[in-house]
Amino acid sequence: MPGNAxxxxxxxxxxxxxxxxxxxxIKSYEGINMGxxxxxxxxxxxxxxxxxxxxxxxxxAQHLNGFSGFAxxxxxxxxxxxxxxxxxxxxxxxxxCIVTPDFDQGGKLLDFLFRFNGAVNGLLFYSxxxxxxxxxALGGKLKGQG
Length: 146
Fold this sequence. Notes:
With 146 residues, this protein is an alpha+beta fold. The protein has helices spanning 17-20, 57-74, 78-89, 108-119, and strands at 3-9, 26-34, 37-45, 48-54, 93-100, 123-126, 129-131, 137-140. It has one domain (3-140). The protein is globular.
């Protein structure tokens, strides 16, 4: 079964071939389209494939409200929560990530998601945990596990 994650991006204008060409580990990539609209991008990597599906714009606000509520429940430190809420407030693009066949045992696909998230200065949601652009767990079940 495929693995799942999500990346929350404040500046979607970064996403494009010039940006993708600088991310280590990408063998190839292709746009995912529905008609004339870009709906995502598929990355081919040595250990597998990651499809990043762009959440439709009309769904983002409601999704971010729910994500903000989730952050409130899992982030214990008040200052970290204020910081995370500000980051979530500025998100303009949500990318749902489908990892095929699943996350590899060597961690290369997850490492790619962390590198990608760092490059877009985003928030990564993985394994019920919210990670900042630098890989720090802000809250969730993996916080404190290094």
